Amino acid sequence: MIVDCHGHYTTAPEGLWAWRKNQLSSLKNSFAKPDISDQQIRDSLEGAQLKLQRERGTDLTFFSPRAGSMEHHVGDVGVSEAWSRECNDLVHRVCSLYPANFAAVCQLPQSPGVPPANCIPELERCVNQLGFVGCNLNPDPSGGWWKEPPLTDRWWYPLYEKLVELDVPAMVHVSSSCNPAFHFTGAHYINADTTAFMQLIQGDLFKDFPTLRFVIPHGGGAVPYHWGRYRGLAQDMNKPLLKDHLLKNVYFDTCVYHQPGIDLLLKVIPAENILFAAEVVGAVRGIDPETGRYFDDTRRYIDGAAGLSAADREKIYEGNVRKVYPRAAAALRRAEGRRA
Amino acid sequence: MIVDCHGHYTTAPEGLWAWRKNQLSSLKNSFAKPDISDQQIRDSLEGAQLKLQRERGTDLTFFSPRAGSMEHHVGDVGVSEAWSRECNDLVHRVCSLYPANFAAVCQLPQSPGVPPANCIPELERCVNQLGFVGCNLNPDPSGGWWKEPPLTDRWWYPLYEKLVELDVPAMVHVSSSCNPAFHFTGAHYINADTTAFMQLIQGDLFKDFPTLRFVIPHGGGAVPYHWGRYRGLAQDMNKPLLKDHLLKNVYFDTCVYHQPGIDLLLKVIPAENILFAAEVVGAVRGIDPETGRYFDDTRRYIDGAAGLSAADREKIYEGNVRKVYPRAAAALRRAEGRRA
Q: Three-class SS string for B207-250?
């Protein structure tokens, strides 16, 4: 089994964007559901994410609303709540249509300056009523201005308490950038991953939440490349070794789009802390002229990694995800059934 | 010859910080020079940067004021100008006392929202009168709030014209962070490196300035680890191959504090674009328990890199720096004379 823990509905039908446009040009926050048929959903996936699953031989994708469109910075908290519900409902429809191909991960209705506790009702609705297996948590709902307290601040604690209670992890994932300094997928995403990890080094969050689990996407930003720097900074701050300080709670995905990057990730981060992911259809869509393969076909790099044992490969493809996302067990059984 | 292109005067005598404290607690901007004797300067270096040069067998360090103390966000442009002059004058004294060990790189008197052209007089003074060989350019003088236009914006062009005229490169280096989201050496520095490179991908700066040269420190932030992502993003944007788009003008230093990181850097970035550096005494001061060596003893990693040819090692240690910093030729001759 190969589980991709990081996919977004980047190909959502036009009806969703029409709904959003209507929402943002209106003063009310109550609308009919987006005008999207099941066939439109199928069409949006069959030639894209599902085609790539088949071609690349992956089995199950954890699927969340398009990250760049979470846009927590747009409008007020009511706008964010209504938009999050629609995006999550649409992802739920995807997973209901293809229950053996996708498991749902929700967008949270964050809003700049609004205590994250406001996200609890939507999180509970998604997990308890709709069977979602995780959520995306935005450390910067301002969209590139970074005005929220660090992830270790008590500001976030009520949401963490709920994550622990529900036993779902959060992927730490920003949305689009409205700061012209930061290209969104080329700078803001990677910076956010790096920033989040450093915040976690500085704090002692997992003393308070020993079972809370974060996935840091895009291979952990700059962290594995600078693993010596982070080990050294933690040591200078009199923190425990990173494996004890953070690696019981923090995981990295494999959205690193070339073989040398994946090789480094596998070399410095324990296999127990790596989850397979490709983020397709996502940030980088072309074919690497150096390999003739899609940049984002990360399975090639995992399969091509010299010296990765079969046992470690299995952890990365399936074993770890079962531990980090226990609520995905049913979807994993369905995916297994499809394969059988 | 081994040239370290990235060192800061982190151990400057107390007289400098007293001067700064006086400056910031006063309403005037004219003060006596800092009360610092030559012996105090010697003492501040002999047990630190000079000791490490000797122990690690490096020959010449490009030396600039402490990056975290540039603090372009503190006070107004007059405060920044006065402080930059004092910091640069002190570095000049260092290089005058040890002309065969250090070559000077200047801090620029940037200030948030102030056109960078204001830096030209201090840059000219440092280069033309004091023999400085380069400068540090802060892409975010706000100190973590990122309010300046991207480095490709015409906002910066008058300064670039002067850099080209003087034939000195700029190291793209932020200062401290006053944004609590960003630890300064663990997040802000690395993010800034990544951000700057992505800005350069998005633009076409080197069409306008074909001889302008930037050094991106800390191993290029996240860039080499995500080299596939950056190649792919550039391709999706219909930019030329990165080697043609940027690598005639952009260089990475080797401030990456573990062997696997350096190995990755050497694997994906051409040797012609890598400059040796350690940034000592700097961000990470401890001994790596996994190796028993200082994290920041980057010479160990370069010497320990399997498959690096002698010719490429020479480029990284010396050859490239001669091309990127042509004004360092005299200091290189002095360092050679000391060795002889």
A: HHCCCCCEEECHHHCCCCCCHHHHHHHHHHCCCCCHHHHCCCCE
